[in-house]
Amino acid sequence: MSSNTKTTPIDTPQYAPRERGLIRRDKIIQAATKVFVGSGYEAASLQEIVALAGGSLATLYRLFGNKEGLFYAVIERKSDQLLSEIDYNDLQSKPPRVALIEIGMRFFSMVISPEVGAIHRLIIGEAVRTPRLREIFLTLATERAIRNLAEYLQAQVDKQHLDIKSCFIAASHFMGALKGNYHIRCMLGEVVNLSIEEQEEFVTAAVDMFLNGYARP
Which one is predicted more confidently, 87 or 134? Predict the structure, then answer.
């Protein structure tokens, strides 16, 4: 090997085989996210993804099975990243209004982010042609977010802080109120620039409306 030959980080000895595999998988997912968002699912080229990520098609197929498996991994990764930002475990001890405002701020900032808008445009563009992709997204992202909030609401019902018959339905209503027209604007490619004060005003109004229906007398 010549002295000026360069090696990539995953080829260096300090990485164990398992670590190298995880790093390669992560690089492929990052490249796939860029290509899927830029080209759409059907037009996305696995060869282009491999060219961006490095490695080979054989490695991609071994790790993900096929294009659908790779798309599943992309949505799962993005869902995990975004849902980790609205983890409610640290809010269990706070009064519902305080906690719901915090939850609302976390969720709303996620909803209006350009990254989420790009993923949603991708899903909408491919959902009719490929219903399976729609189901993957709904299962991994939308329904998980609603279930997480429903679990928080159920804990508050158990503590007799809230009076809710169906926490899943209530969670759906709450998240729907938080999206408003800003979510549509974001999905259409508009950059939604709201100050923290404007976000708080919007979220607080949604929380107060929610509690007017579900707070215990």
Answer: 134
Fold topology of 73-214:
Tetracycline Repressor; domain 2 (1.10.357)
pLDDT tier for residue 93 given thresholds of 50, 70 and 90: confident
Check whether 12 has a pLDDT greater than 60: no
> Distance between CA 139 and CA 137 in Å, rounded?
5
- CATH code assigned to 9-65: 1.10.10
What pLDDT is attached to residue 123?
80
Q: What residue type is assigned to position 138 of the chain?
A: L
